[in-house]
Amino acid sequence: MSAFVPGPQSKTRPPLRGLGALERPRLGDALTVATDAHRLTVITAPAGYGKSTFLGDWARTTDLPCAWLSLDRFDAQPARLFHGVVGAIQAAACQLPLPGNSALLALEQGLADDCAVSYDVLLGALEQLTEPIALVIDDFHLAGLELAGGIVGVLAASAPPTLRMILSGRGHPPIQLERHRFGEGLGELCAAELAFTQDEVAQVACSLGQDASFDAGPLWELTDGWPVAVHASLTALAQARNLPGRITHTPPENLPLSNYIAEEVLEQLDPQLADFVLRATTCEWLGRRLAVELHGQPDGGLLLETCLRNGLFIEELEYCGGESMYRWHSLFAAQCRRILERRDPLLAERLHRVAARYYQDTDVCEGVNQALQGHAPRQAVMSIGRHWLEFLLRNGPPALEQLCLDLPAPWSEDSEMLMVRSVCRALDGDNDGASELSQRALSRTSELDSVRRGMLEGCRSLLEPLPVASRLDPRPPADDGGPLPDFPAEGHPATYSTALFLVAQAEFRLHRTGYQATVLLESAVDNRSDMKLEEAEIFAKAELALAYAVAGDLVTADELATLALEWADELDWSSQDRMAAAWLARGIACYWRDELKGARAHLAKALRLGTKLSTLGAVCVVYRILVDCATGDESHLADSGNVLDAFHDRGLYGVSWNAFHTIARAKIAEAGGDVDGALAIVQPLGSGGHAPLVDTLLAELLRRGGEVSAAERCARELKFQHRNRYLDTSISLTEALLAHGKRDEATTHERIEHAVRRAEPQSILRPFAERTSELAELLIRHAVWGTTHESFIAARMARHAKIQPHLRTRSYWTLTDREREVLAYMRSVMTAAEIAEALFISVNTVKTHERSIYRKLGAAGRRDALKTAAERGIV
Questions:
Q1: What local confidence, expressed as pLDDT, does residue 256 receive?
Q2: Which among 199, 383, 600, 753 is least surrounded, fewest beta carbons within 10 Å?
Q3: What whole-number distance in Å separates Cα of residue 123 and Cα of residue 163?
Q4: Integer Cα distance of 282 and 367 in angstroms
């Protein structure tokens, strides 16, 4: 073979850093670590990320002898590529002072007729190196798919450890990487690492004339750190002599980036792919079906994959149900739209209308935006009119009203849009504004056809059940729940169900018992039963769970809340701020079941997610205080008290909230041992007439404080209100204790039996747990008096026995834990078989424990054993 012959220096010399280019030592350090650890490192990023500049800096400063080869489209020829690789390696080998490079320098740069022979000779020469050498191959994407079958593919697969390869290009290199990634390892740097950090944006801004007060944050967010876009934006600002302290999220009109994209990106692509990119960037987000519609050809989905593989400013993300969605870099897509608008404005408008039709039933906001860009305002109005209820549910009144205001004249004054805005104002409590907009809408109804006139009437019907002037009316509905609102359901069940959903939320704002809301939400869910699972259905399930919790059906509430949260997890929602109702439902259920640890965790989650939903947030705080009072944790109680005051200071919740705030403050005082202070706090509440939960807590507090007459009046007031299971259980126990204080045994036992009957199906335990010391003797006497709920009564007595250590004598500890449990059940009239079923053990095991109890207590039978246990303080 002949001696080393150097090639063109333009291909084998690292490029110099341009004037004003930023030094980025963090990237150099990351690449050094990667090359030290891996034989192959791949750097991939779209155009304009400074790959060549950064690599050039690294190649000149690294301690390794570095071979450099810049590829062009002619390097797709195997002979030319081999010549370039060998020449680059020989240029670096000349710098090696140690023996081992002679074989490399003697290599023939020409490719033999038998390619395998030349490749083997090169590999053999590399094996003789005594020190590692780095080979940087820049712009590998220009060589095309042939790169894998030539010398680069051979070196990537078989080169010895003395050769550290670094491949840099715009897309996925056409060589096999998985064997490296999951085998010996692969170094990787991508666009996320090459993008400017916020500090680096500030450094570039300073180098281009911006002063120290320049805020780099907005520009960094606007460009996602895309270096060429950062430079273009700052250069445009400097040229316009515009040096503000902040930059808006809108690129300058004279941003010279579209020409860069046209020359450096689009012109480098196959014409068919370049045309597809211009069409597909009509939307920043798109799936395969929309790609096909925009492209107008069935291979749109395939071309999306091609864009992804070629690193064309696009990423694939998993969407609902596992479907893939693709997202363009927002700035790249915006510049592509400008290019298409310049080249073919009619096509650009038509594509926006295509996108608007695609999104009109799935994403109202995007559908309206696309329609307006396509100069089709009527299409935008139709999309809002058809789906405004669902949009309102997901985004709230302000966002919906802004969507209507964004319409151009005269469409912003369309009667249906005015009526939609009136509903938004009513939901936000602005009844004067709602009335004015409604009157304007009704004055223009002659402009509408019959279908749109019907929808307008539907909008108006929603105003009737909403609270007047944001006042909270504590009066409950009739037991039958009352009639549903009249809203046209034909033609669009989703619209009807969402309307029911909103009316149900109004019921919660009225602080009612939950029955009416349950009826409404069940109707909403039923109307969606044959439809695809959507966010609105999950929200309805969450709200329905809360409605059941408020109505007293804790079992169903917990099941629905769990189901809604599981659905939300399946959709992989990063933010579940609309799921606060489900967490609150679980918190309420746990509290009344006396599962206090779980209750606090669920309520904390609901409070974090529901801070913007004022009613839910307020209810969360009240229940959290009840939990903290039950646990007696002083630090938690102090924190909850501070949150309570913070909510109260907002003044958002109307008259009923004052009563909730007052009783919560009184509960905090009572938990601290200040019963007199608690009574003083609740004095403004009188003796009832408030929301059922408030009156239930008030009656018990008055009883404990010795205000018997006031407690009785408060309990009587509750007879005229709808009482759910747990409230009925709690107030019935209060009435039983009041009757016991008057020695009215018949009423005492009747009220206890009623409380037990209401509590057992839902495992409502908290009202019994908070009155444990007072109920202990009464429950034993009630079991003797006679009950149809022996198992429930016995379980409460057993629980009392476990938590009363002061009653335990030395003889108590002679019984095992299971024997003490059986003894507690023996105080009832339950048979051995019933006790076995309650404890989930066999009848024989129960009888064995009974014989052991008789032996240890020296008793002849059950009655004798219970008498001895009572005398010794065991029960």
A1: 67
A2: 199
A3: 10
A4: 12
- Contact between 756 and 787 under an 8 Å Cβ cutoff? The reply is yes
Read off φ and ψ for residue 576, nearest 5 degrees: -110, 50
Cβ-Cβ contacts under 8 Å for 315 (sequence gap 6 or more)? 308, 326, 327
- Amino acid sitting at position 186: L
Rounded to 10 degrees, what is the CA torsion of 165, 167, 173, 176? Answer: 10
Segment holding 501, helix H or strand E: helix 493-509
pLDDT of 416: 84
Adjacent-strand bridge partners of 599? none
Which structure tokens are listed for 801?
């026995």
**164, containing H or E segment:** strand 163-169
Each as own residue / partner, the long-range contacts of residues 195-198 (CB below 8 Å, 24 or more positions apart, any chain) are: 195/49, 195/224, 195/225, 195/226, 195/227, 196/22, 196/220, 196/223, 196/225, 196/226, 196/227, 196/230, 197/225, 198/225
Residue 341 half-sphere exposure toward CB, CA atoms < 13 A: 13
Write the single-letter amino acid at 659.
Answer: A
Residue 532: is its pLDDT beyond 50?
Answer: no
Q: What is the DSSP letter of 135?
A: E
Helix or strand or coil: residue 507?
helix
DSSP 244-277: -S---SSPPTT-TTHHHHHHHTGGGS-HHHHHHH
Evaluate whether 115 touches 144 at the Cβ level (below 8 Å): no
587, 623 contact by CB (below 8 A): yes
Peptide bond into 46 cis (omega under 30): no
Q: Which residue has the tokens 């450096």?
A: 264
**Maximum Cα interatomic distance, the chain, rounded to a whole number of Å:** 119
Cα distances from 243 to residues 199, 213, 813, in angstroms, run 18, 10, 83
Indicate the DSSP class of residue 873.
T
Distance CA 768, CA 793 (A): 10
Out of 53-62, 119-128, 330-339, 429-438, least confident range: 429-438
Q: Are strands 163-169 and 40-44 parallel, antiparallel or unpaired?
A: parallel
Burial of 527 (0-12, 13-18, 19+ CB in 10 A): buried
- Beta-carbon count within 10 A of 191 CB: 21
DSSP type of residue 478: P
Buried b (16+ CB within 10 A) or exposed e, 35-47: beebbbbbbbbbb
Q: Are strands 40-44 and 187-189 parallel, antiparallel or unpaired?
A: parallel
Residue type, 409: A
pLDDT value of residue 544: 76
pLDDT of residue 512: 43
More confident site: 78 or 874? 78
Which residues are registered as beta bridge partners of 286?
326
Helix (H) or strand (E) holding 167: strand 163-169
Amino acid occupying residue 646: A
pLDDT tens-place string over residues 247-261: 444 445 556 688 889
Token pair belonging to 860? 């002849």
163 neighbors 41 (Cβ within 8 angstroms): no
Range picked from 469-478, 559-568, 642-651, 747-756 for highest mean pLDDT: 747-756
Per-residue exposure over 577-609, b if at least 16 CB sit within 10 Å of its own CB, e if not: ebbbbbbbbbbbbbbbbbbbeebbbbbebbbeb
* Alpha helices in 633-691, H assignment, sequence order: 634-650, 654-671, 675-682
Distance CA 440, CA 443 (A): 5
- What's the token pair of residue 554? 């804790």
CA torsion angle 59 60 64 70 (round to 10)? 30
Q: Which of 553, 614, 555, 613 is nearest to 579 (CA)?
A: 613
* Top-confidence range, 542-551, 718-727, 737-746: 737-746
Give the model's pLDDT for residue 98.
61
Residues 6+ apart with CB under 8 A from 10: 70
